[in-house]
């Protein structure tokens, strides 16, 4: 049975959607504590997430980025916000699809079914990737290691989160604010100095496996990762 994590603060909509989708033999888990969404996600380990934008404390864009920092689980936004910019932001923050409220339940179910078949079912080309690879540089998602050729380096949680963000946005400038949000969680406050320390550590881990000067400081904007290793192999 496929599991769906439903993050919706309107209890009436959440209950109606839960009852409807359970008819199609989905296991639906409703969010319990909006300040602990990432912990609930990790505990439930769903096959798909339905995510509203307007939520208590932090919006859906924030939680989408947090989920993306640890998982490639498909995410469908469901929101009354119908502007083109909201839909663009949803996709840019890691969403896979966007459904505008009020929605037709059959359309929601059809989109879920389509994504499930593409990722897990008859249209799936392979099992979900266990690594990210760029020109021979591998980030191993389960082992939390980075490797080049036969050389590996073990990463801490924060180092892993940062390097994953850089590799997923190669040649793109990531602001310090964006990276701080990636590192922040409900238990540990991350300040600007903590980010600088972790950037230095990521650079050192990359140097240990033969990758130098790939994470560059963009003055006044943030950081970006560039390929400095492929031509040296």
Automatic annotation (TrEMBL):
Query: A single Gene Ontology molecular function, please?
Result: transcription cis-regulatory region binding
Does the keyword section mention Phosphoprotein? yes
What name does UniProt use for this protein? Transcriptional regulator
Q: At which residues is 4-aspartylphosphate found? A: 52
| Biological process annotations from GO | regulation of DNA-templated transcription
**What keywords tag this UniProt record?**
DNA-binding, Phosphoprotein, Transcription, Transcription regulation, Two-component regulatory system
Q: What lineage is this protein's organism placed in?
A: Bacteria, Bacillati, Bacillota, Bacilli, Bacillales
Which SUPFAM superfamilies does the annotation name?
C-terminal effector domain of the bipartite response regulators, CheY-like
- Tell me where it resides: Cytoplasm
Q: Which GO terms describe its cellular component?
A: cytosol; protein-DNA complex
Statement: the UniProt record of this protein carries the keyword Transcription = yes
Instruction: Specify the domain of life of the species encoding this protein.
Output: Bacteria
Residue ranges of DNA binding: 129-227
Q: What is its main location?
A: cytoplasm
């Amino acid at each position: 049975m496929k599991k769906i994590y439903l993050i919706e603060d309107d209890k009436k909509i959440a209950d109606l959607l839960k009852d409807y989708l359970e008819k199609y033999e989905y296991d639906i888990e409703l969010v319990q504590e909006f300040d602990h969404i990432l912990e609930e996600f990790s505990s439930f380990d769903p096959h798909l997430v339905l995510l509203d934008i307007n939520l208590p404390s932090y919006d859906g864009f924030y939680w989408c980025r947090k989920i993306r920092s640890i998982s490639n689980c498909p995410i469908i936004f469901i929101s009354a916000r119908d502007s083109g910019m909201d839909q663009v932001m949803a996709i840019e923050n890691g969403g896979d699809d966007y459904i505008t409220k009020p929605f037709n339940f059959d359309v929601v179910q059809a989109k879920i079914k389509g994504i499930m078949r593409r990722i897990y079912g008859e249209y799936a080309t392979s099992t979900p990737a266990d690594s990210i690879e760029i020109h021979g540089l591998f980030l191993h998602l389960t082992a939390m290691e980075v490797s080049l050729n036969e050389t590996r380096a073990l990463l801490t949680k924060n180092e892993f989160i940062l390097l994953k963000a850089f590799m997923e946005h190669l040649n793109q400038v990531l602001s310090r604010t964006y990276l701080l949000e990636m590192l922040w969680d409900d238990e540990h406050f991350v300040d600007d100095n903590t980010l600088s320390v972790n950037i230095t550590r990521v650079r050192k881990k990359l140097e240990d496996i033969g990758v130098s000067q790939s994470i560059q400081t963009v003055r006044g904007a943030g950081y970006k990762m560039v390929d400095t290793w492929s031509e040296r192999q």
